[in-house]
Amino acid sequence: MADKTPLAILAAVADNKVIGRDNQLIWQLSSDLKRFKALTMGCPLLMGRKTFQSIGRPLPGRETIVLTRDPQFSADGVHVAHDFDAALALCAGFAARMGSPHIAVIGGAEIYALALPSADKLFLTHVHAQPEGDAWFPDYDKQAFTETLRQAHQASGRDEYPFTFVDYQRKNRN
Question: Are strands 78-81 and 63-67 parallel, antiparallel or unpaired?
């Protein structure tokens, strides 16, 4: 499948695997938001309904695909899918039309769990904190990926905690 658009997971994950609380981000990391924008601009975004509702609107310069079990859900400027395969098909079509380097899976926890077995890339921000939370990044086979980038950053005026950007590429599938 050489022509398949890569599936990339983007997540900010605390040291204790927490990714959110009360359907919200739980830290202020301006550098992470800038990286998120750079990695997702011009890409289809696949997310769950609760993640979409926490953002509150489609993000400019991207196509938003919301995966939900709610048959009544709709939102202006959003494409809705009710199963993972249908969501991926929508994303693939948009990626081809947009010339996107990847499909960006941006959460939440259930969507990450669905996408991890198919993910080609992981763009993770390891947040060096142990916050309380109610959503966690799922376990995955770290041996299936090769680290391709690591950049450590200290906490600063607009970055509440120290963090490390780490990119992973899935090893060749046999």
Answer: parallel
E strand segments, 68-116: 78-81, 103-105
Q: Please state, in angstroms and rounded to a whole number, the distance separating the CA atoms of residues 78 and 64.
A: 5
Q: Tell me the pLDDT tens digit for each residue of 75-131.
A: 999 999 999 999 999 999 999 999 999 999 999 999 999 999 999 999 999 999 999
From the CB of residue 35, how many other CB atoms can be counted at a distance below 10 Å? 17
Cα 50 from Cα 106, distance rounded (Å): 11
Task: Give kind and range of the element (H or E) at residue 12.
Answer: strand 7-14
CATH number of the domain enclosing 74? 3.40.430.10
Helix %, strand %, coil % of the chain (to 5):
25, 35, 40
- pLDDT above 90 (res 54): yes
Structural domains in the chain (count): 1
Residues 6+ apart with CB under 8 A from 3: none
Structure tokens at 83: 């199963």
In a domain, 2, yes or no: no
Structural domain span for residue 144: 7-170
Tell me if 1 is assigned to some domain: no
pLDDT for the residue numbered 1:
38
* pTM of the predicted structure, to 2 decimals: 0.95
